[in-house]
Amino acid sequence: MLTNSYRAITAWAEEDRPREKMQLKGKQALSDAELLAILISSGTVGVSAVALAQDILASVDHNLHELGKRSLKELQRFKGVGEAKAITIAAALELGRRRQLSDLRERPRVTSSRDAFHAIAPLLADLHHEEFWLLLLNRANEITARQRLSTGGLGGTVVDIKMVLKAAIEVNAAAFIAVHNHPSGSLQPSQADVDLTKKLQQAGAVLETPLLDHLIVSDRGYYSFADEGLV
């Protein structure tokens, strides 16, 4: 039985409807729930698109990074979200993630561990498995390439030092930064991480292409070996 408190979005004041609100006040005026409601387009019996969007966001504590990790099947568990709506939500979040990476065309300059983190985090923070990447830099400390070298499982991934050197040589890199993620969210380096960092340092010294840093990335932030004085 429907309660009297429910009103379809079409019955709302025009300035309160998400689409009309965007037209009148601009996209920045909309809440996350209102933006998500535009993607959802319609709700279900007794539940508006905005209310449905609020329920979806509440399930991830209003964390868009967490929402980006949800599979199509997980999104479809919400009543009113079918395959088409789930795909629309996932596609929009993926597009937003890729937008954060578009500045590579301008060769972002790395002057700190945070610069390096922002250059790679969108690729790794939402993953459920571990990956190892390289940020390859020129003499001006500009990132000229991002390269994934290996993919593993939940517990780790294998890194071939020879492949690291090959990647650096191929683009004539002046230096490199190693990056891998911890799907568990932990930012504490393992002994294997410490040992790998030492090997990468040694390999970079032989090639005269120094390792500038090794980052561990998760959805909680990052750990920098350089910041901790370990590189």
Describe this entry's structure for a reader.
The chain has 231 residues and is α+β, with helices and mostly antiparallel strands. The chain contains 9 helices and 5 strands. The chain folds into 2 domains: 9-99; 105-224, Cytidine Deaminase, domain 2 (3-Layer(aba) Sandwich), CATH 3.40.140.10. It has a 5-stranded mixed sheet with strand order 2-1-3-4-5, with helices on both faces.
Write a compact overview of the structure shown.
The chain contains nine helices and five strands.
Rg over CA atoms? 22 Å
Which structural class do you get from the secondary structure elements? alpha+beta
Count of individual helical segments: 9
| CATH fold call of the largest domain | Cytidine Deaminase, domain 2
Query: N-to-C SSE series?
Result: HHHHHHHEEHEHEE
Low-confidence stretches: 1-5
**Helicity range of the residues?**
40-55%
The CATH superfamily label of the largest domain reads Cytidine Deaminase, domain 2
* CATH A-level architecture of the largest domain: 3-Layer(aba) Sandwich
Q: What is the mean pLDDT?
A: 86
Helix/strand layout:
Layout: H1 18-25, H2 32-40, H3 49-58, H4 64-69, H5 72-75, H6 83-99, H7 113-124, E1 131-137, E2 143-151, H8 161-170, E3 175-181, H9 191-207, E4 211-218, E5 221-224
Parallel strand pairs: 3-4
Antiparallel strand pairs: 1-2, 1-3, 4-5
